[in-house]
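Cont'd.
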Amino acid sequence: MKTNNLLSNKYFVAALFLVPALFFALVYLIIPIPLSAYYSLFKWDGIGAMKFLGIDNWAQLFSDTVFWKSVINNFKLVAISLIIQIPIALFLAVLLTRQIKGINFFKTIFFIPMLLSSIAVAFLWRYMYDPTFGLINGILNLVGLGHLTQSWLGDSSIAFYAAAAPIQWRFIPLYMIIFMAAISGIPEQLYEAAEIDGANNWQIFFFVTLPMLRGTVINASVLIIVGSLKYFAMIYALTGGGPNHASELMATYLYTKSFTEMNMGYGSTVSVALFLIALIVSVLFLRFNKKDIRN
Amino acid sequence: MKKSAIILILALLVSTCLVGSVSAQDQITLTLWDIRTASDQVTPALKYAIERFESDYPQVKIDHVPTQNDNYKTKLRTAMSADNAPDIFMTWGSTGLKRYVEANKVYDLTSAIESGWRDNFMPAAMDLGTFSDHVYGVPVTNVAPAYIWYRTDLFEKYGISLPKTYADLKEVVAEFVENGITPFALANKNKWTGSMYYMYLVDRIGGSDALQKAINRTGAFNDQVFVEAGEKIQELVKMGAFPDGVNGLDEDAAQSRMLLYTDRAAMYLMGSWAYGTIKNENADILTKIDFMNFPAVESGQGDPSNLVGTPGDNYYSISAKSEHKEMAVEFLKYLTDEKMGESLIAVGNIPPFQGVGNKIDDPIMKKNYQTVQAAHYIQLWYDQSLPLELSQVHLNTTQALFSLEITPQAAADKMEAAAQEYYGN
């Protein structure tokens, strides 16, 4: 029978199973990109008539100081995340792949931040940051460091860093798990050989583990770079991009423009700019590291 | 074996799709969106109305979807623009609702209103839901002006008397600061909270028509009155009238009221719903809570009986797309009937309905009711009365005033520039 033939064709079956995912990817990921580029040429409040503007939105974008501030904040977030998340995740991964008592307990504990929803984490930190009742200022006062207390989310000069902290806290476990998986894939013989050669723990880490993890670290870096460039959730929940745009990211800015100020045209312009920036940066980074991945 | 498994999965998928569409035949479901989350004091009154409606109309189910205040505004705008509006939705009336009316997204309630329903409402409350003599939203929740709520015991303890004028207010602020108490509890991440100070100062300095003049372009948003209001806010900020990091605190997370509850702050400028909120959150403290009008500015033209707020607070409307408009109208009648009025009074609100005055026993609510009756003018919140393009500029510049990141003149100029762009002059 013809259907039977089709169904026994593994490519057809594979395609069949891909159809639902492909459909949603098309509708929610692929099609919106050219659509946003199209909207960016209009003045549109999302409800009424669309008014063609040509490149006015783009001209406005280039002279929009808030947008550039958000771009800078995004790159700051990339740098902070790379510097903090990779080393700490690596450290924890190495630690947790060793024979330590109660290892499963620590694995679970360290993984918990990843299991909480972003918004819940943001609320947790919001109360920790409360200048009067918060845990952080409370502890500082308790140990006699009262002069270090801050209005963490209200002070424009530190609000961005305060809002970036929970992002680090939440995502370290993700990379920890990725590194743990990679470490357990390193052949045991390499370690045995190193031990016979008399390498100490540090040498084993730097000359065996780290080189073997190179590809994984690069992949994790790409995830962090792209993730940080399009980051939204916890910043939005903690500061909404404020105060006075101090912690604004491209994604929070496009959200505010599109959905709070109902300027869908300009919001689309920001979103296309965000897409282009993320695309260029990740292509450049991958090209830069291409040789290394092949090794 | 493999093939039959695939066919089985496909069959299951198809059948689940079918089941979903068949079962909901006779039952009507009306979707209702508003901000009545569990922590909202009006929620029990609303739930009671839903309960009464559903028991009278067993074939109708109200699917109530509450969303927290600031997120709600975004959610509704998004749904409206995507043509996904629920059957019944809540707004704050005025320009926010008008935008949807102009886009033909809202069902015209006029014929229902004119068949006897109008007598149910306080006349002043109807205005914000009425556009070109057609009614699109009915007031349900609260006659809610902003007052300065204060801790009577803290005023007594430090022998401080209530401020009648702005000069008095500065003295009060100075004395509380001296005693280590934050004068005003304020959480200004939300921006509309700080805006209340600005609106009152503009009213007290320039009178009730200052804003109207700027809107109808006989005046400007950088007129002296707006600059002066900004200066006074910054004067208070510099005196330490507000909590540290005020722009990072979240009103929706009660970070303002916590200061009031723990004796750390003495005053709280907030809509009259604060009374119900406090009752809900911390009933023990109610005996130490009272309210006063915002003080007069000595040289100003504003009448100190004027209020800033809303005569209806929340307006409920029906989507033009709803398939069960008559049923939805019927439900709105349950939301505005006498029983609803009684349950609103019970939670500390003044329902915008006729003949509620003599039903109120609570002394604070009585005072609230009388203050509203005595007011010569109620200015609607700027973020509801200004078009969206301007209200966002107003909120952003006012927040920046509180953190001293913009000068009053620059804030006013920015507002005027946005107004010129919007009104095209």
